[in-house]
Amino acid sequence: MSAQRDMKEKNPWHTPVTIIFSVIGVIAIVALVTVAVLQNRPLPQKYKYGIVLDAGSSHTALYIYEWPAEKDNNTGRVEQTLSCKVDGPGISSYASAPWKAGKSLTKCLEQARQKVPVKRHSETPLYLGATAGMRLLNLEDSSASTKVFQAVEEALQKFPFSFQGARILSGQEEGAFGWVTVNYLDDRLEQNLQTRGALDLGGASTQISFVSDNFDGSDSPDNAVAFRLYGNDYNLYTHSFLCYGKDQALRKTLAQQTKSGPGTILDPCFHPGYTETKNYSVLYDSPCVSDRKPQGAPATFNHTGKGNFSRCQEVVKRIFNFTECKYSQCSFNEVFQPRLQGPFGAFSAYYFVMNFLNLTDTSIPLEVVTERLSRYCATPWNQVKEQHPGVKLKYLAEYCFSGTYIVTLLTKGYNFTSENYPNIKFIKKIKGSDAGWTLGYMLNLTNMIPAEAPDSPPLPYAGYVSIVTVIALLLFVLFIFSLRPLWPRCSKHPQII
Ligand SMILES: Nc1ccn([C@@H]2O[C@H](COP(=O)(O)OP(=O)(O)OP(=O)(O)O)[C@@H](O)[C@H]2O)c(=O)n1
Predict the structure, then answer these.
(1) Name one GO cellular component term (predicted).
(2) What is the pLDDT of residues 326-340, one digit of tens each?
(3) How many domains does the chain contain in total?
(4) How far is the CA of 126 from the centre of ligand 1 (A)?
(5) Domain that holds residue 146
(6) CATH code of the domain covering residue 389
């Protein structure tokens, strides 16, 4: 008994000083780890917002984007959180009653007011960009275009957001920002991957934008846009064809067919059995159409479908000029185009039309695409209506023309072949955000894509926590070892002094 008591007394671990020392050591290390971890813990996410209105020729759409507040100038974290289609036509259609253009936008802006948290309203930028419809109105009647913008601005200023102005985008901007959107959402810019070209088909204009090794802008400076994004330089080729959006292309194709004829158009691009009386003004009231109503013709014409793909393609081809080219190579209408390169994303009306026709899969050979289109165009109008009861008749009547136009534009216009047609992907959205120019436009105006690659933290948060914990444990073990002189001597038989 007394030997045991003696041993206890000699064992330094049992001295109060050592116990207090150890407890303080442990507490200090736990405190150190806790403070370090808490201090560096990612904060609960707060979001910032941006709103862009795409005022297109056929309609206006509002998009809200959000991103984590602390990532303003950082990597691909901006996401679309709401899209709202404005009721009615595009703002350029309100030239004779501009106030209606402003009023038409309010419903979607009300939705935006609900969606963005109140405390973020005043700092949320709101942009309106108008495309080919307003470009055309501005060409035709610039004072009408100014009035439409005044009405629209007045309406937008009534909302609590930070309104940054309404303006017409140039065709070059529309093409380039569409390309930025697609490649940003695909993370191709930040990761310096091969970029994806952008094919955008609207109602009044169409854009093609891509990076090609044999294009540095010297051949055709008007088609060049230089970007430095995330530390990489891009020489983008871009061209916007005004009047080659699918609605204006349809007018041009129809007007072409009225040139010689009397009051009836027998149209191979519309289904057999389709027949409508239309006013000539639907064709000629556009700066895209230079032909005029045939001499002595009545005010209206009879539009009758014949449903013949190959003849439709012949008529469509006539709206392109393939004969002149002062460069080494052209697409059409004397416009330079370098060799096609890389994958492409085709969106807007490219997607709507090819999706309706069940032709978004580009592994389907081009010959099969044309066969299917031929069959679809030859389908009687009544049968088409029966098969698609839910589709708006105006859209439904035009899909034969639109499909033919898309195939002709891609193959004859831009020179896609059977070999590189599969490089095209028809897309609507990428990771939940619509493909289109709006996101690229906002990223540019808010400086959200840095020219240089952002510095990334040396360690992710989990790695940081692990390292702090391991070092703290090591310190603790070292501390224990530093008390070694005080450790009891090991012996099988306790020494009794
Ligand atoms: N389900 C749908 C929706 C739209 N469209 C067509 O797609 C085109 C609209 O494409 P969009 O990108 O919205 O064009 P806008 O922005 O209106 O035109 P632009 O860019 O030329 O100003 C229009 O011809 C419209 O008729 C379609 O065929 N099917």
Answers:
(1) caveola
(2) 999 999 999 999 999
(3) 3
(4) 23
(5) 47-168
(6) 3.30.420.150
CB distance 175 to ligand 1 below 6 Å: no
Cβ of 203 below 6 Å from ligand 1: yes
* 54 and 34 housed in the same domain: no
Provide mean pLDDT across the span 265-288: 94
Q: Which of 348, 351, 405 to mutate to test the pocket of ligand 1 (most atoms within 8 A of CB)?
A: 348
- Beta bridge pairs of residue 129: 54, 167
261 is an annotated ligand-binding site residue: no
205 among the known binding-site residues? yes
* Within-domain flag for 198: no
Say whether 174 is catalytic.
yes
Residues 31 and 140 both lie in one domain: no
pTM of the full structure: 0.86
Counting from 1 in the atom list of ligand 1, the atom nearest the Cα of 436 is 12
Which residue's CA is the closest to the ligand 1 atom numbered 24? 203
Q: How far is the CA of 451 from the centre of ligand 1 (A)?
A: 33
What is this model's ipTM?
A: 0.96
Query: What separation, in Å, do the N-terminal and C-terminal C-alpha atoms of the chain show?
Result: 14
From the candidates 140, 154, 173, 174, give the one annotated as an active-site residue.
174
The sign of the torsion formed by the CA atoms of 211, 217, 220, 224 equals positive
Ligand 1 and 185: CB distance under 6 A: no
Is 63 within a domain?
A: yes
Ligand 1 atom index nearest CA of 205: 21
Q: Are residues 143 and 24 in the same domain?
A: no
- Residue 213 included in any domain: no
Tens-place pLDDT, residues 171-213: 999 999 999 999 999 999 999 999 999 999 999 999 999 999 9
**33 and 58 belong to one structural domain:** no
- Same-domain check for residues 256 and 391: yes
Under DSSP, is residue 187 helix (H, G, I), strand (E, B) or coil? coil
Residue 268 lies in a domain: yes
| Predicted confidence band of residue 497 (pLDDT cuts 50, 70, 90) | very low
SS3 73: coil
The response to whether residue 446 sits with its C-beta less than 6 Å from ligand 1 reads no
Element containing residue 61 per DSSP (H, E): strand 60-68
CA of 474 to the centre of ligand 1 (A): 65
Judge if 261 and 334 occupy the same domain: yes
Q: Is residue 409 within 8 Å of 244, Cβ to Cβ?
A: yes
Q: Using an 8 Å Cβ cutoff, are 207 and 199 in contact?
A: yes
Strand order in the sheet with 197-201: 224-229, 232-242, 205-211, 197-201, 344-348, 424-426
